[in-house]
Amino acid sequence: MTVNPMTAQEVTEKILNNDQLFILDVRNEDAFQDWKIEGKGITYLNIPYFDLLDGVEEILDQLPSDQDILVVCAKEGSSIMVADMLSEEGRDVSYLQGGMKAWSEYLQPVKVADLNDGGELYQFVRIGKGCLSYMVISNSEAAIIDATRMTDAYVAFAENKGAKVVHIFDTHLHADHISGGRKLAAQTGATYWLPPKDADEVTFDYAPLEDQEIVKVGDTKITIHALYSPGHTIGSTSFVIDEQYLLSGDILFIDSIGRPDLAGKAEDWVQDLRDTLYTRYKELSDELIVLPAHFMTIDELNDDGTVSERLDTLFKNNHGLNIENEEEFRKMVTENLPPQPNAYQEIREMNMGKINPSDEDQREMEIGPNRCAVR
Q1: Given this model, what pLDDT does residue 369 score?
Q2: Does the model's pTM come out above 0.90?
Q3: How many whole angstroms separate alpha carbon 166 and alpha carbon 191?
Q4: CA angle at 17 for the pair 85 and 114, rounded to the nearest 5°
Q5: What is the C-alpha to C-alpha distance for residues 142 and 246, in angstroms, rounded to an integer?
Q6: What is the rounded distance in angstroms from the CA atom of residue 169 to the CA atom of residue 321?
Q7: What is the pLDDT of residues 86-135, one digit of tens each?
Q8: What is the mean predicted confidence (pLDDT) over 200-217?
Q9: Can you give the CATH number for the domain in which 153 is found?
């Protein structure tokens, strides 16, 4: 029978279409439990590769005959070997090309909306990591917000749209993933903007992004407004685009809120977080569409593949926005935190420009799920 590679893009399309897919994950159990491919139509079987070295005969009756079967491992090699063994037993199977490393790096561009005066807003869904980044295109100019380190994907997308990247923004100094901001600025000659309160220790030049800063993209009336919104970091900055869309960074998510502890300042920043969510955001229009920098689970994706929700809906439904007692809020965001992201201190140092790991080391630093949220 046949063994076919399946790309991260193909898996993503199956997830977005709610297609049925059976995954045989041959990583160790702890790696599987910590982080796996998720989707409404996905079912799993986790059998470590080393348990299959003597053959796959004993698991054949656990594999469906009416679904696509995808074998997954960390880097690809083990999944190919298991897929070959299944093929020899008469099963049609696929393996994840590039393994979970490729899954972690894939970006799916999804159009959010047409903007006033002909512009466009796109969301780049890093489905294997839970990261969300954005591109505004207007009159052959592009701005990118919260770029990942996979910068070629943005450059190619902008070029395909006939746009030149002229502005790059980070909503804050990231601790869970490596920013592509500096690399993109070097590739494109664009201006790289950072909140100065997060940039005390950076080793490179940047444009300071101050509260109420307005940066135009193209020759139209599209503007990106910076809104100082501390809490996840002391410099966290939100953006209002086209008076319709609130890019909330890591302050507010669809089903959770940002954690204040990744710089070791949870007790110091918890009040900033509450003030941003319960005061600054309350002053904004209820009709704004919130576009966060992360999502936690696949359930937060809409039917069109975007991650978004109206601000008034989040004020009704998001638990983190409905804790009246300040002490209860403080306990939630300081005492009930999920595990911290892998290598988050090293990621912060890289985003400051203090260290420069190899590409392979960068991949290893980022492996694992999104851990920026509290709920």
Answers
A1: 77
A2: yes
A3: 6
A4: 140
A5: 18
A6: 26
A7: 999 999 999 999 999 999 999 999 999 999 878 999 999 999 999 999 99
A8: 91
A9: 3.60.15.10
Q: Do residues 370 and 237 both lie within one domain?
A: yes
Structure-token pair, residue 268:
């110091």
Can 73 be counted among the known catalytic residues? yes
Which alpha helices (DSSP H) does 141-240 contain, by range?
A: 151-160, 181-188
Question: Which residue has tokens 């790696």?
Answer: 31
How far is the C-alpha of 43 from the C-alpha of 88, rounded, in Å? 23
Residue partners of 156: CB distance under 8 A and separation at least 6 = none
pLDDT at 273 exceeding the cut of 70 = yes
Token digits for 372? 């920026």
By residue count, the chain amounts to 375
Q: Could you tell me if 367 and 342 are in contact, meaning their C-beta atoms sit under 8 angstroms apart?
A: yes
Mean pLDDT of 295-307: 92
* Distance of alpha carbon 75 from alpha carbon 274, whole angstroms: 41
Q: With CA atoms as reference, report the closest residue to 176 among 314, 290, 338, 33.
A: 338
Domain hosting residue 87, numbered range: 3-103
Q: Looking at the 3D structure of the chain, how many domains does it have?
A: 2
DSSP string, 274-306: HHIIIIIGGGS-TTPEEEESB-SSGGGS-TTS-
Quote the tokens at residue 98.
């590039």
CA–CA separation, 343 and 326 (whole Å)? 31
Catalytic pick among 8, 15, 23, 73: 73
- Per-residue pLDDT of 14-69, as tens digits, reads 999 999 999 999 999 999 999 999 999 999 999 999 999 999 999 999 999 888 99
Task: Answer yes or no: is pLDDT of 262 > 70.
Answer: no
Q: Which residue has the tokens 């009336």?
A: 221
Average pLDDT of the chain is 91
Tokens of 49: 């590769």
Residues 83 and 147 in one domain: no
Indicate the SS3 state at residue 138: strand
Per the DSSP assignment, residues forming a β-bridge with 310 are 289
